[in-house]
Amino acid sequence: MKIIIVRHGDPDYKHDSLTERGKKEAEALSERMKNVKADYCYVSPLGRAKETAAVCLPKMHMEAEELVWLREFAPIVERPQKKGVAWDWLPQDWTAMPHAFDLEKWPEHPALKAAHVEEEAEWICREFAALLEKHGYRKEGKYFKAEHPNNDTLVFFCHFGLECILLSYLLNIPAFVLWHATIATPTSVTTVATEERRDGVAQFRMNAFGDTSHLYAAGIEPSFSGRFRECFTNEDERMD
After folding, report:
1. How buried is residue 13: exposed, middle or buried, by Cβ count under 10 Å (0-12/13-18/19+)?
2. Do 19 and 47 form a contact (C-beta atoms < 8 A)?
3. pLDDT at 150
4. What's the pLDDT band for 239 if we cut at 50, 70, 90?
5. Could you state, in order of their start, the residue ranges of all structural domains in the chain?
6. Cβ distance 65 to 96 under 8 Å?
7. What is the rounded distance in angstroms from the CA atom of residue 37 to the CA atom of residue 87?
């Protein structure tokens, strides 16, 4: 089985929609996605993801099922620098957390516990697990039982914060590390596929993360949403 996770285009967060740049990104993405032979498509209920999917799905000759748990990761946390999403902590803060690199214990930081981050992550993972079981794969410990092995392709139109929770479940990497050590820019495409070297036993391996080759093919530079300045003296890039 193959799972393709697509982040929405450049967002207008205030209006939960796409910017004009995001619409151009989504159009470039659709030219890529029309070649994807998807068997099932799923979409977040938020506008920016639905707008992105709406450009792609007609060219894919597909419809998408809306799943509420594919919304962006919702908890708002009292971080040291400012109140906000569960990620975007400063490096000197998050790397000093006792369990940041622990797959099971990373949500135990007091600020994360106060925001019910663990409960939100567990809810998403339960829903994701149920969907994967429906498609033939059930997690057992750190690997998956291939109860009904298949070559289906599942496409998810969603959000970066949420994507990291899904990848954490599939790859056994702490979501907190994925949030801070990776970035999937708008309309980027991440591909994860099963590896089944023994009958009935599977693991997921990521063979592409945050790919934006469709933007370069269209002559579009990936937008900066979700990223911060690459050098502190780059005053034209985001700092907070």
Report:
1. exposed
2. no
3. 98
4. confident
5. 2-73+136-217
6. no
7. 33
pLDDT tens, residue by residue, 75-123: 999 998 889 999 999 999 999 999 999 999 999 999 999 999 999 999 9
Q: DSSP secondary structure string, the chain?
A: -EEEEEE-SSEETTTTEE-HHHHHHHHHHHHHHTT---SEEEE-SSHHHHHHHHHHHHHHT---EE-GGGSPP--EEE-SS-EEESS---HHHHTTSTTTT-TTTGGGSHHHHHTTHHHHHHHHHHHHHHHHHHTTEEEETTEEEESS----EEEEEE-HHHHHHHHHHHHT--HHHHHHH----TT-EEEEEEEEEETTEEEEEEEEEEE-HHHHHTT-PPP-TT---SSTT-TTS---
Instruction: Give the tokens for residue 209.
Output: 């993360």
In tens, the pLDDT along 189-202 reads: 999 999 999 999 99
Distance of alpha carbon 152 from alpha carbon 136, whole angstroms: 10
Which CATH code of 1.10.238.10, 3.30.420.40, 1.20.120.340, 3.40.50.1240 fits the domain covering 2-73+136-217?
3.40.50.1240
On the question of pLDDT at 156 being above 90, the answer is yes
Q: What is the pLDDT of residue 240?
A: 82
CA angle 82–85–88, rounded 5-degree value: 70
The answer to whether 7 and 185 are in contact (CB under 8 A) is yes
